[in-house]
Amino acid sequence: MSYRLEISPLQQKAGRFIGLVRDAFLIAILDERKSGKRITQQSIAKKLDVDRAAVNRWLSGDANLTLRTIAHLAYAIDRDIVFELRNRNPKEGSNVVTLPTVEKSGKVHPRKTRIEARPLDSLAGVL
Amino acid sequence: MLKLSSKDVLLTFMATLDSLTKQGHLIKIEVGLDPEILPERVIYALPSVVRWLKAELPMLVAEWGEGSQSPIEQVDYRFKQFIAGENLSSWQAMHVMRPADGDHHIWELKTKDVRFFGWFYQKDVFVIAQAASANLVKQNNLYPGLRDVCVQLRERLDLDEPKVVVGGYSNVVSS
User: Fold this and answer.
1) B49: closest CA of chain A, how far (Å)
2) Closest to B68 (Cβ–Cβ): which among A1, A62, A110?
3) What are phi and psi of B50, to 5 degrees?
């Protein structure tokens, strides 16, 4: 007997995206600390001229992260933001290939990497 | 004398879980994973926990309202992380309950608004015995009581010995 949480695909999409973004900040901050930078909630707050409590709410999940807040936090920890909308159902023979990546632990992790070669004029109206 | 390999021992463990699942004493928790992600860990829950997931969890409201993850979204995300084998070593995600050096070996798997309590039957196999809203647990200091109930439920459950993995994070999960 098994049970699958009764959550709509829409809720799941939203919840996992919010979790992913928040975790990305926590991981980035930990990485920066490991590399010797003294990043604290206080230092982020000072850089953004906000209360430390506000930073705490953003990072702990107590408050909604707006796009502007995400950008501000990325600025405060000196990280670039990469945003991509991937095609969930790439057609056979399309320009998406699967490349395995090897993590530091030696664990092989399959990951999709997009390789695109589009003529420049196809970007007309997009940029 | 019959010699058992580690594989035989593992199969014996799984047979116990399988039989308890078939009898309805345990229920395997499943989540949707992307096609390229393979499950690396397993969650089982007692039927009372699944009843709570069905009836109570959808009614919970996020403490900080719209915009942040709702409690059911938090749980889906945490279960997905656990089953996909992601790192959950932070105190905010999962930790052994206090006193950490006690002989209860009960773990708390947590989200912002939800708390799960249970134990590792074997490495990467977590059995949830209790679930509650974080508010309820914190406001009434239910931690010691929930921990002790989990121990009692583990004792009652007809699992093969040893019923619990002891130790810290690296002892209970592979990654």
Assistant:
1) 11
2) A62
3) -65, -35
